[in-house]
Design goal:
The protein is mainly alpha-helical. Helices cover 61% and strands 5% of the residues. Mean pLDDT is 82; it is low at 119-124.
């Protein structure tokens, strides 16, 4: 992970933060541990958190990313945009343990993508 990208993310400018996160993903250098610290620290600027939450959806360490993202989704005191982006990132990770949590916070039909890209309803 480059220091320059992290500086841009932490500065919190919406466009710069997201573009820096995209570079981390494109370069395949998404390290979940430092990103998790930024994502969970509510003192960080909202767009810094949103950018790293987005990047965590592409993390190499899916279990660490999944736990952090699940905590963010489940925190009703967190800002809605962070929670929504965390839910989206979890969907990208295809973390099945989070489906019951998603159904709790967003009732209705939750759809999972199958391995061939088709959408199928989740039923417990």
């Amino acid at each position: 992970m480059t220091d320059q990208n992290m500086r841009l993310i932490l500065a919190g400018d919406p466009v710069e933060a997201i573009e820096a996160a995209k570079r981390l993903i494109a370069d395949d250098i998404v390290d979940g541990a430092p990103l998790a610290k930024v994502a969970t620290n509510k003192k960080n600027r909202p767009w810094a958190r949103i950018a790293v939450i987005y990047a965590l959806g592409f993390a190499d360490d899916e279990s660490t990313a999944g736990l952090v993202l699940t905590d963010i989704v489940g925190d009703r005191d967190d800002i809605e945009e962070c929670r929504a982006r965390a839910a989206e990132a979890l969907g990208h990770l295809r973390e099945p343990r989070t489906v019951p949590l998603m159904k709790k916070f967003w009732p209705g039909t939750i759809r999972l993508a199958s391995s061939d890209g088709a959408s199928m309803p989740y039923r417990k």
